Amino acid sequence: MARLPTIDNEVTLSSQLELGGRVSAPAAGRLALPSAQMLGALAALLASASAVTLVDGLDWTPDRMLLVFLAPALVLRRARRYLLDFVPFALLILLYAETRGLAHLAAPHPYYRPQLWLERHLFGSVPAAWLQEHFWHGSMHWYDAVAAKVLNLHFVVPPFVAFALWVRRRELFFRFATSMLVLSFASAIVFFAYPSAPPWAAARAGLLDVVKLPPVNDVSSLGSATPAPANPYAAIPSLHAGYAFLVALTLAGLLLHTRVRFRRVLAGLCFLYPLAQSIAVIYTGNHYVVDIVIGCAFATGAYVATNRLFARF
C-alpha cells in the first residue's frame, strides 16, 4: 500500500476527502523524496538550533524553543500558524515552571526517608550509590560528560518531537502537547504535596554517600525562565524519566499504526531514550529508581488519558 503524502497548508486528509478532492499516491516502487522546501526547512532548523545551542547550550528555555522552530516554520510558510499553536504551549510550560518553583516556596522542607527506605528494601542498596561507587572516581571521565549531555537532552527532545509532529499533522502535535501539559501539571500537584529529597540531598543530610555530579543545574523543566526559584525537591515524579517515556510512548504508538517494516522493532528502540535518561539521572545522584518508576507511571497515565480524550472528539 502506497503511503499517502502529507497535506500542507493546514488541510487534513479527512477534510479534503469531505470536499470531494482526491489524494494521489506516488507511483509504485518510487521512493518519495523530501521537497526542496522541506530540505530548506531542515537546513533552517539545523542553523537555528546550532546558534541557540552555541550561545546557551542545550538548556533551552521556552522562549529559545520558539526561536529555534520559527526559522523552519518561516521556510515552510506556516509561521503565523506556528506562532498561534506554539506560543500558548510555551506559555503553559512557563506557567508550569512557575508553579513548580512556587511549590518549593510553599513546601521548602522535603521528605528524605520514605523513598530511601523503599529503595533499600527493594534493591538491598541504593542504585545511585552503587553506580557512583563503581564508576565515579572523583574527577570527570568521558562517561560522566555523556551522562550530563543526556540529562540536557531533557530540554531538547520533547520540543523537537512536538515540532516534528506539528509539521506532519497538527492534531498529532495537539495530542502530544496536551499529554505533556497534563503530565507537567499533575506532577506539580505532587511537588506541592510531597517535596522529595533526591539522593544528593539525602547525602548532604548525612543519610547517603552520593555526590551530585557536575555539570547538572537545578533548573525547571524545559528551562528556568521564570521569576520563581528552581525547585531542588521536585524529584517525585521524575520528569526527566516522565517526559522521555512520554516521547517514547508517542513515537512507538505512531510507528505501530503504520505499515513500516520492522515497526515493532523500531517501536521498541524508542524506549532506549527513556532508559538512557533513567540511567543518567540515577548515576548523577538526581533520582532514585522509585522516582523513575513513578515518573513513567504518570507519563503513561497522561498518554492514555489524552488519547482517550482526543478519540472522543
Give keywords.
313 residues; mainly alpha; 14 helices
Task: Describe what you observe in this structure.
Mean pLDDT is 87; it is low at 1-31 and 215-224. This protein has 14 helices and no strands. The longest helix is centred in the N-terminal third of the chain and has 28 residues, at 79-106. Helix 7 (142-152) packs across helix 13 and helix 11 (239-256) packs antiparallel against helix 12. The chain has one domain. The protein is mostly helical and 313 residues long. The two termini are 28 Å apart. It has helices spanning 13-18, 36-56, 62-75, 79-106, 113-123, 127-135, 142-152, 157-168, 170-193, 199-204, 239-256, 263-269, 272-283, 289-312.
Short overview:
The protein has 313 residues and is mainly α.
Cα distance spanning the termini: 28 Å
**Which term fits the overall shape?**
globular
Uncertain segments: 1-31, 215-224
The percent range for helix content is: 55-70%
Largest sheet entry: none
CA radius of gyration? 21 Å
Structural class: mainly alpha
Strand content: under 5%
Give the mean pLDDT.
Answer: 87
Number of strands: 0
Number of domains: 1
The number of helical segments is 14
N-to-C order of helices and strands: HHHHHHHHHHHHHH
